[in-house]
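Worked Example 4.2. Read the sequence first, then its structure tokens.
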Amino acid sequence: MLGLGETKEEVEATLIDLAAVGVQIVTIGQYLRPSIEHLPVARWADPQEFAYYAKFGVKLGIKHVEASPLTRSSYHAKQAAESTTAQANGEPVVVRLAQVGSH
């Protein structure tokens, strides 16, 4: 989740760590405050920032990256799993960048 005060360097370091331990699927979305009792949104990440992190993750060897303001942990989970399985069979990497307002 972006929007809790993280820096670019922290997100990149996290992706590097995830790739180093063999994580194959990553989702990156915008933090949305669920209630007044939860932390407030520190900032709204730009869609281009999500695109940057998706490409960065794939370059590190993460096989499937879902990244958009509306992405959640289960977002396109079936497609992500199918994509990583296909890649194990030699098919190309898939990076999905959802458009805000589309499903």
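Now turn to a second chain, presented in exactly the same format:
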Amino acid sequence: MAPTKKTFNALIYYEENDNNRMKCKTCSRVLKKDRVFNLKKHLLLHGIRPVQKENNSDSKKNMKHSKKNMKHQQIKVQISKKNLVRSYIGLVTEDGFPFDVLDSNNMRNIIDPICQGLKDKSGKNFILNGSKCKAVLEQVAANIKLEIHEECKNRLISLKIDSATGLDPNIFGISAQFISKNEIKSRILGMVELKGAGSSAFENLAKEIVSVLDKYEIALSQIVTITSDNGANMISQIHTGDDDTGKACILQNIEYTKQIDLFDTTENICVGEIQICQCAAQIAQLCALDVTKNTVIREYLFQCRNLTKYILEPSNGYRDLFELRNFTLPQLDCPTRWGSTYNMIDQLNKAKSILSLIETVENNSQDEHIVVNKLLWDFMDSYVTIMAPLQKTIMQFQQEQLHYGNFYALWLVCKLSTNQIVTTSNSSKDSIIYTIGEMLIASMEARTKQLGSNVGFDASLYLDPRFQHILDGSQKQRAINFLKTLWTQIKIHSPIQNLSLTNSNTSHTEHKESNLDLLDDFLSVGVVKNESTDVHEKIEMLKLPYMKSSTNDLNFWKERKSSDPELYALSKICFAIPTTQVTIEPAFSFLKLVLSDNRNRLSHHTLENILLVRLNSAHLDSAIENLNLFVDED
């Protein structure tokens, strides 16, 4: 057998220049690419030489020798118990591994030698396995709860509730929101599972919320607002068992229409005297659904849905064609999945080059009849054009933690952008783009007026230097009344002496933010506050200077906390009122992975621990540090 040799690739020491030339990476000299001898000869100047020939027998001997050495080779790993435990439970809480994997042979081959090297001084083994991970997870979750308990002590907070429609319509997540260190913070408190229907479901939800609050010793009098993803309508999902992801693929058009109507209904659900209200961000999805109520638009929408069903049917062969042409396969929309209608139509419109060849499918069924013609393509193009600003806003509402001021700023930009598209369009008033645009603008105007019913909306704008001047008399009066009531709440849970010129925070865990705070503490000793320049009068007489739209409200009030500590305290609570469900919704997407078929034996308690640890990552390191496991470490 002829000996083999390792080839010497000189080109790896050069980079492409131009005109079939190569530039040396070492000295930048340029040579012709097809002069291989010259390329190799040049490398000799830099001490780079071709490898020597190596026959098969030598190679086998070397390999055998290497394997022999590997049997006696040991690997040294530098890792602390803390990092090991953090990574180990992270396999479950962050990567979604089932506990069974932690006990697999392959995992044991990796973990056991490390644990052997981490024996304590007495020789006692350090053990990590599936059951140990659950126990550690329990301890870490308990430590996180203690830290959240301290954060929420003597503090007014707002709650967010979201139903896990993609996971289980009977499961709800509860989180607290407040401002700390000049940032909006969200803390997952727990999850509840409801059973029952009608008024019993309402009562059960209220009881479960109170039960979760009791775990943290949070009184109902500390709660400013309770916001849900779609208001009291979430209870209706328990009645119907609807799943916005699982059933979307089989949702027929008549059911689709019913869901649109259901999405806009509300019921009164109260926790104590606090009524649960829908998050303000839902206004965007409601406007998108309002457009579909036009009979002409709805008929076009049904055609798009039927076309999507046709494409998704494997026997029609479009899945492979979409992949071949690098198009995104459209997914059937669902009213409760924000922005899904736009995504479906946009993906259809982008694939026009291959879908325009589909012939009209005549069928008596409303869910199978397809008419693919110029009118349908004009509708798709018009829809994605006029709805683009709204879709962008919907995505922002789902991705960003917003207070009412920033929420309203984005919403106004959306309204102005949509109106600009309509007014600058050359289309006639009979065109489909004009029809969609007029309906959307009318819906935006009507829905915007309804925002005033959201608790704290007017008050937040009243404290926002960008928007205070645009409020009318009734809005200002609602804001003033709300702020007066809120001030009474603050005095109950945060005694007046705690609202000093320098200590406006209400949590033991909120540390000094800078050396200037220390200086302010020193200089303010002995200063007597004139707190009774009646706070109510301050609220009534408040006149803020107009600031540009780029103003950071939290920074604006932080700079005024010494001169207006009471108003600063009010601003922190108002700007902490949630407008979106950014924190909770991604959590349930993760839990859906955890609850796959081979993991459905997990108890509700274990699932809640996973949720707490995963989504309260700000407390994870300190929670692990405080485990009894590490009391003997330096």
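Notes for the reader: Residues 238-249, 500-512 have pLDDT under 50 and may be disordered. The first strand starts at residue 14 and ends at 16.
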